[in-house]
Specification:
By secondary structure, the chain is α/β, with parallel strands linked by helices. It has two domains: 12-183, Rossmann fold; 187-409 and 426-465, Dihydrodipicolinate Reductase, domain 2 (2-Layer Sandwich). Helix content is 29%, strand content 18%. The chain is built from 14 helices and 17 strands. It has a nine-stranded mixed beta sheet with strand order 15-14-13-7-10-9-8-16-17, with helices on one face. The protein starts with 11 loop residues before the first helix and ends in a 12-residue tail after the last helix.
Length: 485
């Protein structure tokens, strides 16, 4: 079979599946023009919703198990790895797939989530989507259009258009959604959001966020040599809607994040976590512009390190001229070594804000600082304390009341609470996480055209004067996976 051919076998079942996909995809587009879709059984209280885990190894295993612990009944597993056919499960990520199959030995197993939706129909109430980034949109969209509640890992999608569509359809259908940036459920993050909105640092001028990722290979200029596909791995399904690449263990199950076609690099992987608090606190309109500095990006792979700056217009929480959001990732003295297929570091100095920004504080592995006209607030999503400088800004500050629902750090439980009617939506539902993802993915595009200020027209979903970048905003899908109006 050539790489450009339709990957689906010619059978009545597959033909039916294609019809289903076409119908669901067309409905997704139609929602832009005012159509309303009422899910079959997404409303009302459910005491034990039936769950399908799409992507069951690695992070998927965590999502499935913690969803079960939150009260879901696990009814199906979907993964391109069939652990029962693997000759070896030495890789810890493949091993986790074997473990999840043994944890839920009686549930239905599928290699293809399209088959799962087609066969199980209304036997499923909700799904977790824990696949590589390039499958997030298709799996989540099909779920919502068939009335399923969706928990999707970050980043919400691989492209800006996909994020816009998921947020739109989530609103239209009313299904309960949640993106898997787990710290969004932490009480201390929610308190810092309230404090910033109450003016603890004054009107905000700048926000800085940073990470030491990538910890996987980035910056390679050609694919690795082709390897034989191991028994038990459905590689056609893994590639799915994205451009074809021959199988290599240097791509999956982990290093796909360093491929433009399948992942979104360190920025896409971590920014939905680390930029989250600042973006949430500001509730900004879409960015006016974005610009990237980077080192090591290629046709195939994101950069080894980068700095991104977004410019936002003014709102009630910002300085009168608006504010800038700054992002830093990667190690400064690092390079890609093709023989080992690894990033090789010279020291441990990774990209981070200036000393003036850090103001004597350690930048450690990741974190953020919000800078206002009165002072600074330092935040770390894994620590339940925060720091303000200078401390004198607390004098006379009237602490605000609690305005955001508290989830006690349980992102899965909050999703369940939305499904059972205890809350209207989880705080990281697609209407909130979609715009955050769009902002992050605009930065991903900027990494591909460094040192260039890109002006963003959010309404038209276009970068002004750069029609050549439109395929990065809305990508083409492989035959058999196309979205049709």
């Amino acid at each position: 079979m050539s790489h450009n051919e339709n990957i689906q076998p010619q059978s009545a079942q597959q033909s039916s599946r294609r019809k289903f996909i076409k119908t669901a995809s067309a409905a997704a587009i139609a929602t832009q023009f005012g159509a309303t879709y009422i899910p079959a059984h997404a409303f009302g209280k459910m005491e034990k919703p039936a769950l399908a885990g799409i992507g069951a190894g690695g992070k998927g295993r965590t999502d499935i198990v913690q969803s079960r612990d939150a009260g879901f009944h696990v009814a199906a597993l979907v993964d391109i790895v069939d652990a029962t056919k693997l000759k070896s499960v030495g890789d810890k990520r493949l091993k986790s797939m074997a473990e999840v199959r043994s944890t839920f030995p009686k549930v239905r197993y599928f290699a293809d989530y399209r088959e799962m939706f087609s066969e199980l129909g209304d036997k499923i109430d909700a799904v977790t989507v824990s696949t590589p980034d390039h499958h997030h949109f298709h799996a989540s969209m099909m779920a919502m259009q068939s009335g399923k509640h969706v928990y999707c890992q970050k980043p919400l999608t691989h492209s800006i258009w996909e994020a816009r569509m998921l947020a739109s359809v989530a609103r239209e259908t009313g299904v309960k959604t949640q993106m898997g940036n787990q710290a969004h459920a932490n009480d201390h993050m929610r308190r810092c959001v309230e404090l910033i909105r109450a003016g603890i640092v004054g009107k905000v001028k700048e926000i800085h966020a940073w990470t030491n990722r990538p910890i996987w290979p980035q910056g390679f200029s050609a694919p690795p040599p082709k390897e034989n596909i191991p028994a038990g791995i459905n590689w056609e399904q893994w590639v799915g809607p994205a451009p074809w690449v021959d199988y290599s263990s240097k791509i999956a199950p982990f290093a796909w994040r360093g491929w433009w076609n399948y992942g979104t690099g360190a920025l896409g992987d971590m920014a939905c976590h680390i930029m989250d608090m600042g973006h949430w606190a500001m509730m900004p309109a879409t960015p006016k512009s974005v610009q990237a500095e980077q080192n090591g990006a290629t046709e195939f792979s994101p950069p080894i390190n980068s700095k991104i700056t977004w410019e936002f217009g003014a709102n009630q929480y910002s300085a009168k001229d608006g504010f800038k959001f700054n992002w830093y990732d990667g190690y400064v003295n690092a390079g890609f070594d093709r023989d080992s297929w690894k990033l090789v570091k010279d020291g441990n100095d990774y990209n981070h804000p200036s000393e003036d920004v850090l103001d004597g504080e350690s930048f450690k592995d990741y974190g953020s600082v919000v800078i206002g006209e009165k002072g600074k607030l330092f935040f770390h999503r894994s620590r339940n304390k925060w720091l303000v400088k200078p401390s004198g800004i607390l004098d006379g500050f009237d602490e605000p009341d609690q305005t955001i629902h508290r989830a006690g750090g349980d992102n899965y439980g909050e999703w369940m609470d939305a499904i059972t009617g205890k809350v209207e939506q989880g705080q990281s539902w697609f209407g909130q996480s979609g715009p955050l993802t769009e902002t992050v993915l605009l930065g991903v595009i900027a990494q591909r055209v460094p040192d260039t200020r890109l002006e963003w027209d959010a309404g038209k979903m276009q970068i002004r004067g750069r029609a050549d970048l439109q395929p990065l905003i809305r990508r083409e899908y492989r035959d058999g996976w196309k979205i049709e109006i």
